[in-house]
Design a protein that fits this description.
Length: 231
Amino acid sequence: MSTKPFGSLEPPTAREEKEINSKDASEGGTEAGARRRQHRRSNSFIMVKHVRETPDEVVDQSVAPNVNAEWVNMKGMYQVTDMAGAWVIHVVLITLAKLIINEVPGISDAVKWSIVNLGYMLVSYCIFHYVKGAPQDLNSGAYDELTLWEQIDQGYQYTPAKKYLTSLPIAMFLLSTHYSHYNPWLFSLNLAGLLLVLFPKLPILHRLRFLIFPPAPASRTISGTATPVHT
């Protein structure tokens, strides 16, 4: 117990500091304890956030099909043909990019393959893992916090579409590594591009957000006793 007079401005001793900390620990639900915990968490420069669905968002998602993600499977009248077309377009775009790069003089074939590979990885990351929401808001914003990868097949893992979209970057990495003759610098760049698009696809990272240097949580002030008003 402290023996200092009331209103003393002297700093607390080590024993008094220990008593204060033990009291805060026993009163974990108090405003002061919450502020201290928030202050400790704000010192971290990386924060992991899990995006969860509210009951209203679940209802909104069932109102209309998500056209932003349905094109990957193209579940229409010609499901098999449309699905093949949606998958083949990746190969077509990669082939066109390679043909265009081939017309640029003064670049070796190893560098050309690496440029095509890194370009595909970057575009794939931006489309599937960076941009959130849907351009056509038919579900009352139920997908605003989700990336396209998280919207595909309603978030289910190991579906045919997700297996294909996972194997394609790996195939591009193997091709670029082979045609670059395992150059260590190009291999490192291509490997970095592969990891950039593979890590967000892991099921363990589903709906997780890594915030670097997150803003400090707003501190809440404790309001005192209301001043009585005479009427």
